[in-house]
Amino acid sequence: MKSSRQNISKGWITTAFTAVLAVFLTACGPGASNNESSNASASSDKNGSKKITICLIPKKKGLPYFTSCAAGAELAAADLGNVELIYDGPTDGSPEKQASMIEQYTLKGVDVIAVSPNDPDVVAPAMRKAREKGIKVISWDADAVQDARDYFVNQATAQAIAHGMVDTMVSDIGGPDVKAEVAIVTAYLTAANQNVWIQHMKTHIADTYPNLNLVAIKPSDEDQKLAFKVTQDLMKAYPDIKGFFGISSVSFPGAAEAVKQAGKSGEVMVTGLATPNSMKSYVKDGTVKSVVLWNTSELGYLTVMVGEALATGKLSSGATSFDAGKLGEKKIDGDHVLLGDILVFNQENIDQYDF
Description:
The protein folds into three domains: about 1-30; about 40-155 and about 295-340, Rossmann fold (3-Layer(aba) Sandwich); about 160-295, Response regulator (Rossmann fold, 3-Layer(aba) Sandwich). The chain has helices spanning about 1-25, 35-40, 65-80, 95-105, 120-130, 160-175, 190-210, 225-235, 250-260, 275-285, 295-310, and strands spanning about 50-55, 85, 110-115, 135-140, 150-155, 180-185, 210-220, 240-245, 270, 290-295, 320-325, 330-335, 335-340, 345. The chain has about 350 residues and is of the alpha/beta class. The longest helix has 26 residues, at about 1-25. An eight-stranded mixed sheet has the order 2-1-3-4-5-13-12-11, with helices on both faces. The protein has a four-stranded parallel sheet with strand order 7-6-8-9, with helices on both faces. The relative contact order is 0.12.
């Protein structure tokens, strides 16, 4: 009986050792990793092609604007078939948290990091480190410090966006002959894209609309309640004010709500940048005549297309155009991939759009 027990024990140990060894060899084999992102990066799609992991980082996760961009990014990933998309970002808009996330995904070994910087200078060191590790880094929606990224996926030129907002405001308040005080409610004073727009707006007003007087530029910290309060305060400080530019998807509805609650809908005009869905009620009740934007879903779609092309070598420095799949051929101006023109939504067309 003793010999039988020893044989059984030896057999069990051998079997267990074999099983453990098999698990160990599997774990140490090609493409293995202790994190989901690296697994995705090293895995293959159904056609045997290497999966490309793209991490899409917005300024602030949870905003409808960025959610609609992410939806377009998902469509691009599905159309390409070889992309694993990660959508992640700070929920409070902190550039420091953006930088930390870039560092985390660099350690996880993703193939592409696409970031919309809240503060380009704060996130630049993390973006540079990612590039040093061989990760393709692109900016989208808002540009980064140039040496910290490969390409910028640009929704429209800064001049076109700025001119579009100013021209729309002038039209909404009654034309270039109307003398009017106006103010800008921005997101952050450090937001590079908004600061460039503001400079172009100032120049366009000075050169083209001398009757328009820009009296104030105030931040709202990407907080709709603060945008509401800032607009209220500006109406008190400038009782004759005729218009507000809300140049972020949060400051615009905040400013519109303040004008509406003050009982000045149609008297004080509000225009700016936001998704049509977030502004439909204000357009339909007359608080807002025009909403300026671009196709946010297409912006997310183009960003993923550019990221995948960079990672696979289909897009290289010096290219002047880019095949963006269902979006068609897109122009490349230097290191800017251009989505196209702005859109203006009003009572006549706003119901045609759902984002």
